[in-house]
From TrEMBL, chains A, B:
Organism: Variibacter gotjawalensis
UniProt-recorded name of the protein: UDP-glucose 4-epimerase
UniProt superkingdom: Bacteria
Domain NAD-dependent epimerase/dehydratase: 3-205
Molecular function as annotated in GO: oxidoreductase activity; UDP-glucose 4-epimerase activity
PANTHER family from the UniProt entry: ADP-L-GLYCERO-D-MANNO-HEPTOSE-6-EPIMERASE, NUCLEOSIDE-DIPHOSPHATE-SUGAR EPIMERASE
Length: 327, 327
């Protein structure tokens, strides 16, 4: 089996690659070839014995996307994307990468040949939804994004479904919740604090909380996100039907419950490293985001997130901190 | 006021142009200039005293769309579209006109200048919805089109909302129900019989009914469709908010009720000119279409369709047949 990952140098792309190599396959099928692309050259995975092509490529350049699929990967994980904040600030860049990039890639697939229909896993986002919301967002809720990023993801979902319906590829779109705890340095994303208030205190560093503790949100770990991608690749057309863009499950908690969880798992001293510093802009942005999602269909199809926020924190401590908490 | 109509040579485009000329304005504002474009040159309207530019242009050619907006029309009615059946058969052509054409036009608006934000009325369709449906489709129902045409319309709706949110234009999208009674010759559209079973018998010609009388659908006259366009152009950004793609109201009836209505309005002899000839393919296609729509928000915003199917038939007799029924 040949697997292509776009956006392979990103956090999720690297974790997906590592897991495929570690498990020596995808849903039980051996992988003899990996193609890894990103705007910077992705690292070749350690310990992999199959063929690897890893190279830098601009996803919005149709020659490059044609090259990516020219060797007919059986499964494509399309992760390449400009993130929400950047797509909002740089309108042209966001549309170029997130929309034109997707269109170029699926057109490249279509033009590769009538006998070529790869599995195509697309990472969408709950940013396709925009306030006002019902108590919990049902699977049948309409897409009214309030960002260009969410708009681009919503458009790609529609394209994915139509290209699948026409038989050009075998698509599945997964709407990721907020990924928490995101490893690495703090960034300036409006959502950054959801991870920051866990990651920084665990590392002995003070974190800033810019919103009220009553803010509610849905989270899944990077490990769950990778699990969603792998599970999605194993679903059949028959299981998916025409409605192949699925809201993923997650752990639904308030910020106050996140902090309580941190206290339970890591103690009072760690939990005290959070400083309240309300930020009107962040509060307003976060106020337009989805709080609860039903994710009924995804659960029925076997997608699994963590059971509790305690589990989310423990996963971070085990996987990213080698089990060590800064006292 | 300067008004641009794309798709001006089509049935709705011509009726819209005629009405604007007849009323000598748009929602009470005088129109001193009309730009009319289509893939064939639209006819200049009779009796109009303002400036008219009517010319043939390919909407998907970005030089042409830039030309269309170069004189900064205050209101744009974007009607140009490849119809459902054709978009399904000619995949590239459908995407080229319905998606790339729209993208080119709104990009042309954006690039015309930061001080230019025209009212932009986009004609969408209930084809953005795909079965299975609840009893009646609510305004918050998700878009799961089962045709490339519906997909393209759904994508344009998302683009329209994002370009409006960013302040590049002042958009409103109206999802038209099936237009009935469509004047002119019978065509091969799967939906053609909805009009055919009224139009042909009234003209003394036999019509074929390919589906069961229990098939339910929502209809509005061409006159109502033009009314929707004009009403949409008069709505403010404040009235619309972020959710600016609206499902239009219509008269909801079964085919049996359509025929009963024809009998009431035109008599038994006319109603007897319908021959039942079941067509499996048409039955299957029509089975995926929306039956009932709530259109709650559109009604609240003042959009009005006919009150009954009798009214729909009477409008056809008055407007298209000069009051005459073939005995």
């Amino acid at each position: 089996m040949h697997v292509l990952i776009t956006g392979a140098a990103g956090m999720i792309g690297r974790k997906l690659t590592e897991r495929l190599v570690r498990e020596d396959g995808l849903n039980g099928q051996a992988i003899d070839k990996l193609t890894l692309t990103d705007i910077v050259k992705p690292a070749a995975p350690a310990g992999y014995t199959g063929k690897v092509k890893a190279y830098a490529a601009d996803i919005a350049d149709t020659k490059q996307s044609a090259k990516m699929v020219s060797e007919r990967p059986d499964v494509i994980f399309h992760l390449a994307s400009i993130v929400s904040g950047e797509a909002e600030l740089e309108f042209d860049k966001g549309y170029r990468i997130n929309l034109i990039g997707m269109l170029g890639l699926i057109e490249a697939v279509r033009r590769t040949g009538e006998d070529y229909h790869p599995k195509f896993v697309f990472t969408s986002s709950v940013a396709v939804f925009g306030a006002p919301f019902p108590h919990s967002i049902p699977d049948e809720f309409h897409l009214t994004p309030l960002t260009s990023y969410g708009t681009q993801k919503g458009i790609c979902e529609l394209l994915l479904a139509d290209y699948t319906r026409k038989g050009f590829l075998d698509g599945v779109g997964i709407r990721l919740p907020t990924i928490c705890v995101r490893p690495g340095k703090p960034n300036k994303a409006a959502s950054g604090f959801f991870s920051g208030i866990i990651r920084e205190p665990l590392a002995g560093v003070e974190a800033i909380l810019p919103v009220s503790e009553s803010v509610r949100h849905t989270h899944a770990t990077p490990q769950s996100a990778v699990g969603f991608l792998i599970h999605a690749a194993g679903l059949t057309k028959e299981q998916l039907g025409h409605r192949l863009n699925l809201t993923m499950p997650g752990v639904n908690v308030t910020v106050g419950e996140q902090i309580e969880s941190l206290r339970r798992v890591a103690g009072d001293k760690v939990a005290s490293r959070i400083r309240r510093e309300p930020d009107e802009l962040i509060m307003r942005v976060v106020g337009g985001w989805a709080e609860r999602v039903d994710a009924k269909r995804a659960r029925e199809l076997g997608f699994k997130a963590e059971d509790s926020f305690d589990d989310i924190i423990r996963t971070h401590i085990d996987e990213e901190l080698g089990g060590n908490i800064a006292a």
